[in-house]
Structures are given as structure tokens and as C-alpha cells.
Amino acid sequence: MRSFQSTPEQGVGEPRAKEQTEERGRIVMKSGSPRPLFFTGKRPRRDRHSRRKVSFFHFRSYEPAFKYFTEQVLDADFVPTPTPTRATIKRGEEMSADYVCTPFKHIIGDYAAALDQGADVLVQVTGFCRLNYYGELQEMILREAGYDGFQMLNFSYVPSGKIRDYIAYCKKIVNPNLSVAHGIKNLLGAYRMVEHIDAVRDRYLANAGFEVEHGSFARVRKQFLSDMNAATTNAQIEEGFRRAMDAFDALPIEKPVDPVRVGIVGEYYTAQDPTSCLNVEQKLLDMGVELSNAMSISAFNLHYNARAAQARVAEYCAYDMGPTSTFNIDAAKRYAEAGYDGIIHIKSAGCTPEIDVMPVLQRLSREEHVPVLFLTFDTQTSDAGLDTRLEAFYDMIAMRKVRS
Amino acid sequence: MKAFLGIDTGSISTKGVVIDEARKIIARSYLWTEGDPSGAVRRVVDDLRSQIDLDNVEVMSIGTTGSARRLVGAMLEAQVVKNEITAHAVGTTFLHPDVRTILEIGGQDSKIICIENGIAVDYAMNTLCAAGTGSFLSSQAHRLGVEVEEFGEIALTSEKPANIAARCTVFAESDLVHKLQVGYEKKDVIAGLCRAVATNYLNNVGKGKKIESPVVFQGGVSKNVGVVRAFEDALGMEVLVDPDGHLMGCFGAALLAADAPVHRAEPFMFDVDDFEFRTREVICGHCANHCEIVCVYRDAELIDSWGNRCDRGAIRPKAKTETAS
Questions:
Q1: Chain A residue closest to B291 (CA)?
Q2: pLDDT exceeds cutoff 90 at A237
Q3: Is the pLDDT of residue B272 over 80?
Q4: Which residues on adjacent β-strands are paired with residue B64?
Q5: Is A396 on the interface with B (CB under 8 A)?
Q6: pLDDT of residue B321
Q7: What is the pLDDT of residue A232?
Q8: Which residues does chain A have within 8 Å of residue B210's beta carbon, measured at their own beta carbons?
Q9: What average pLDDT does range B64-76 have in this prediction?
Q10: pLDDT, tens digit, for every residue of B275-317?
């Protein structure tokens, strides 16, 4: 950054010391062979660029979509992050401040693991809260921790939000030879893949609690994700999705006519990511619950109409309180109206916007007579307390359902 | 006569009751856990055995609850292993069918359960901090050189309770020290402490919950009349404390055990002492997550294990005749 302020060492009347960038205009005589005037000897531009190794953080089951985006849109190599374990989380915890939001710790742990795997570009997204500063801060922390040979593809550096600027930024960081036509065509594929991953997730949550053969739904989901991981064309994505849906249709389930239904809302990352929320979804499914999770990339980023949601929740809050608050209140209201037996609100420790949502949900709970369970997650690994709460919640809504 | 056993193993105390077919308590026991749940359960079981006539009473079903419910359930081959929130709700609604709100403060946790028409409709449990629970009171009693059992009586004698911060244990403690140093009377400080526990509870656990009468207050802290009075003042309504309030968890577990679909094939003979129970921790090596799996052995025979995140780490007891859980 160029500074226009006088520096203390500069005496009065003395010329200002020039910075390096200003020095660049001068002709510097270099020893060695003279540079030819006409033939530069450079290879063509497309060959001069070494392929970048791009890595994302771990986020639910979106990895195939990240991979497709990297390989087919950015035309770079994809480095998969290893499945997060206790060691990854601990690493992330050590590298972050104690009171930072929990997703930050998970993400930076993933980044460190990805860099160990040889990634040289890390992708960070932008949002409406502190998420905006994550990328910059994480880059600084990682560099201080001794990782040096990497660049951040930090989308919060594109403040205009224009597609043209995003393309220019991706070209600059990842691949100067990016083909825009090819990229946009495959971006649609990535978009569809995200929608499909969410559709498969929704189908899994709705029915996996009632499977006849233990583990059959998980098997189909696993197959689907590996199909998506292997997909290189848009047609393969569609085909893999259809195959998974057919496989789900073929699986036998024993679902009661009126099952216990629970809706999940909450903070964007924690509510979706099983590592962050100690796999709340699977715990509930094992109790035999029909689940629905409002939060997903397609629900919040691709198909969300903020203005309509704001209008629907006008009686509960007059203003939008931050990233996902209106979305969550709206989703909780829809669950209550659809006759769900309970709502679970999941947030990470210290997520201010979601703390603001809680009183609204409490009011909703009182007025619509639907129990709401509030869960807060930090990087804890013990789930004894969580089990107690979930079991009690299940008992409560199940008993209520039987008697009413 | 058929009977049912309920055991509630909490962090501080272990409670047990035996109920008969009319759901009446015929034996009760209340002992300190002292950090050793399996030892405490043995002592409770022995205590209960001494209170009943084994020739007449046949315990046909066992329910366990509390934070060590799984371990104890495995030890006693319990028919029902239930979380303490459900057990408390079941026990209390049986004794007080018209109850609307249950306040519960135990050794390490506190919870509120809202009830409509005899069914729990909402509950909350303290999450991040143990401020205002029984262990906080007992550590402060120790600081003041008073027995925690006398706390309530002393608090009632105070006319001007001292104002003590209710937000957090650390602040409450420094407030308390300060008040003592500037010369407040001990009874006023104790009364202020009781009030702080009630305020803290209503501000944290009870936040956003509609507290309606009749209110039942239970858990170990309910034995403290000072806190009961503080709740009555803060809520402006009568707060019921059952003489068996501290046993409500195990009573609920016993009720659930009585309603269990499958009972024991032969009565429980209160013979845990004849077996040796051992737990062993295994670190699963199947992936980098390194789950800590707890295995429970009865005389070198593996009877249960838990703690694994996925099926790969499952350690299963050798196939034997299936016991209904």
C-alpha cells in the first residue's frame, strides 16, 4: 500500500523517499546476455501457466460440486480435503481465537489439512456477516503459521458482485486461460449438481429413519456422491441423480401414516455440516423421525426470495437481522404451519444473528404451540449432553403426539 | 408382590426407589455419587435391599436415568434407560397431574419443563455454564463456613438480602467476597445468594418460557427453603416442593420401567455385588477420528459398548440370547 503521509525520518524540505513501485520507471542496466529486440523467446501464454491446485473447505456433502466447479469451470486441479476428524478440528482450534465463530475453526483446520496435501489455492466465500472477513484473516493466520506457497481465492475481494469481476478475479488467481463460454456452460452443471445433492439429502432425511434394511439409504447416498464425484459432464450429473432417485424409490420403508416430524433451521454452516453439529440429523433419524432441514445452498443461495420471506414474517420482525435470520424465521413458521411436531434451531457458539432469531422463535413456539429446541455447538466432541437433550425432545414430542 | 426399581445416577448424588404395583414408593435411598457411579449404585442397591423383604417383593423391571444411565443400565440389565428430563416429567406429572411448570435444579444442571394437560410441551436445560446449581451453592457454603443443609434456614432469617450479581458464578463469587469484606451480615449474604440462584435460573434457563402455576420445584436445591422463598418472591406464585422431590427422577424411571412392554424373566435379586464391573476405554484406530469407545465388562464378559461415531468402530458383545431393552 502506498502511503502519502510523510514519514518521521523525512526532514523538512527534503525530497520524499521514493517507493519501489515509483522506481520502476527507471532503466536498469543488467549484466548478462542482451534481450533480443524482436523475438521474445516466450512460450505461448497458455503454456506459461502452471496448473493450480485448488482446495475448498469441507462443507457437508458439497465436495463433488466444488470439484466439478474447480475442474470443469475453473479448469484447475482439485485437491480434496480429508474427512475432518478430531485432529483437524483441534488444529483449527489452535489456529483461531477462542471466541471466533465455530465454522471459522473448522474451516481453518480444513485449510491447514488441504495445504498439507499440496493445495496452492484456497477458496473462501463471501456472506453477510463476519464471514466476509474470514478469508483475509485465515490467510494471515495461515501465513503466520508458516504456510507460504498459497493464494486465496477470496470472493469477498470482489465487492462489486458483478460476474465480469468474478471472472477477472478467477483468471488472475487460478487460470488466465479460463474459457468463459465453457465455464458458464459447466457452471450450470455445477448449479444443477448442488440442487441434486440437496434433493438427495432431503429425500434421505425424510425416509432414512424408516428404512427396513439398516444402512440402505446411506448406501444409496454414498453411491450417488461417488457418481457425482466422478462426473465430468453435465449429462453424467443428471444421469447419476436419476439413478439415485430410482434407487431410493426402490428401497422398502416402513413409515407410519403420521410419523413424528422435525424441522431443522439454524446457522448456515453448523445446521448443515454433520461434523460441526455432532451429526444431529443421524441421531434423530436413528430415533425414527421424519426430518427436514431448511438450510442448504439451493434453499438459501439459489432459490431464496428475500423480499417474499421478509413479507411472510412481517408480523414477527420488521427488519432483516442479518444473514440467515429472516430465512430461518420464515422456515420455522412454515414448519409450524405445516404441522411439524418440533423444530430444532442449531447455531454455533457466538453467532450473533442467530441469537437474535431465538426470541422470535420462542414467540413462535408459544403462539403456534410447537416446541423448539435450541442447540449451540462449539468444537466440543462429547455428545452425552446432546443425546440427553435430543432424547428428551423426542420423548416429549412423541408423547404429545400419541396423546393428542 | 411385583415391584419396580428406578435408579437415578446424577453427578453429585445417586437416588433409588422401589415402587409397588400401586406405584407407591416402598423403599428409597439417596447417597452421594462421589465420582464413582458404579460404586454408588451398589451402595444404593444395598440400601434398598435392606428396606424391603425380598421374599415378598419381586422386582420385575428396572429403569435407570441420570447422566450415568447407560453405564448403570448395562450393570443392572435395565429394561428402560431414559434421559432425566423425561423421567422427571413422568414422575412429577404422576404425583401432580395438574402441574404446569417443573423447575429443577440439580448438582450440575438445571432444567425447566412446561406441561400442558399432563404432557411436556417444552423444556430447556442449562447449556454452557453451571451457574446457580447445587455445586455452586455448596462451594459457596464451604467458603462461608456453613453447612449447605443449613443454608435455607439462615437465609429465611434475613430481612435485607444483599444484592448479588446473578449473571455468572464468577461475578457472583467476587460480589459475595466483596459484600462480606465491607461488613454485610452473613445471613444477608446467604439470602442474597439464594436470590441470585433463583434470578439466574429465571434469566437463563427460564428465559422466554411461560411459567404458569401450579409450579413444582425439585432437585437437590429444592431442599433449600431460602431458594424456594426466592422463587416464590420472584414469580409471585406458590412454589410446591414435594418431600420426595429429590427422588422424582428415579421415581419416573421406575414408573417407566413398570410400563415397559417387556419385563424381566426372573426377579432382580439385588445381587450386583456378586459381579465385578469394569469399564475399559478403547481408542478406535479405524480412522483418524480416534473415537473413544467405552466397553463395560461384567466379570471379564463384555456386556455393552458405546462412544463410536460409525459402525466401523462398533465393538459388539458376543452373540447371546437377546435381552429386550
A1: A86
A2: yes
A3: no
A4: B7, B81
A5: yes
A6: 46
A7: 93
A8: 366
A9: 88
A10: 777 888 888 877 777 778 888 887 778 877 777 777 777 777 6
**Residues of A with Cβ-Cβ distance to B255 under 8 angstroms:** none
- Quick check: A119 pLDDT over 80? yes
What is the DSSP track for A197-256? Answer: HHHHHHHHHHHGGGBSSTTHHHHHHHHHHHHHHH--SHHHHHHHHHHHHHHHHHS-B---
Q: Which of A87, A384, A389 sits opposite B67 (nearest CB)?
A: A384
Q: Which three cell numbers stand for residue A342?
A: 418440533
Q: How far apart are CA A122 and CA B152, in angstroms?
A: 60
Contact B289 A86 (CB under 8 A): yes
Give all domains of chain B, ordered by start, each with its CATH number.
Answer: 2-89+250-274 (3.30.420.40), 98-241 (3.30.420.40), 277-313 (no CATH)
Nearest CA in chain B to A374: B124
pLDDT in tens, B229-254: 999 999 999 999 988 888 899 999 99
A376: closest CA of chain B, how far (Å): 8
Judge whether B119 is closer than 8 Å to chain A, CB to CB. Answer: yes
Q: Smallest Cβ distance to B121: which of A363, A388, A400?
A: A400
Residues of A in contact with B84 (CB under 8 A): 388, 392
Picking from A358, A388, A393, the nearest residue to B84 by CB comes out as A388
Q: A369: nearest CA in chain B?
A: B121
| B309 part of contact set with chain A, CB < 8 Å | yes
Kindly report, residue by residue over A376-389, the tens digit of the pLDDT. Answer: 898 877 777 888 88
**A215 contact residues in B (CB cutoff 8 A):** 311
DSSP secondary structure code for residue B268 in this structure: B
Q: Whole-model pTM?
A: 0.83
What is chain B's length? 325
Residue in A closest to B66 by C-alpha: A388
Q: Which CATH architecture has domain A51-178?
A: 3-Layer(aba) Sandwich (3.40)
Per-domain residue ranges for chain A? 51-178, 187-255, 257-404
Q: Is A235 left (phi over 0), alpha (psi -120 to 50) or beta?
A: alpha
The alpha-carbon gap from A359 to the nearest alpha carbon of chain B, in Å, equals 7
Residue A147 identity (one-letter amino acid):
Y
Query: Considering chain A, what percentage of its residues have pLDDT values greater than 90?
Result: 60
B67 Cβ under 8 Å from any chain A Cβ:
yes
Q: Is residue B281 less than 8 Å (CB to CB) from chain A? A: no
From A272, A269, A286, select the one nearest A198 (Cα to Cα). Answer: A272
Domain A51-178 and domain A257-404, same fold? Reply is yes
Q: Is B286 on the interface with A (CB under 8 A)?
A: no
Q: Does B285 touch chain A (CB under 8 A)?
A: no
Which CATH code is given to the segment(s) A257-404? 3.40.50.11900
So what's the pLDDT on residue A35?
Answer: 64
A362 closest CB neighbour out of B121, B208, B287: B208
Confidence at residue A46, expressed as pLDDT on a 0 to 100 scale: 65
Residue B28, beta-bridge partner list: B17
Q: Degrees (nearest 5) of the Cα angle B247, B39, B79? A: 60
Amino acid at A232: T
ipTM of model: 0.81
pLDDT at residue B152 is higher than 50: yes
What pLDDT is attached to residue A194?
96
Angle at A81 between CA A77 and CA A84, to 5 degrees: 175
Task: Please report the pLDDT score of residue B322 as a whole number.
Answer: 44
CA distance B239 to A269: 42
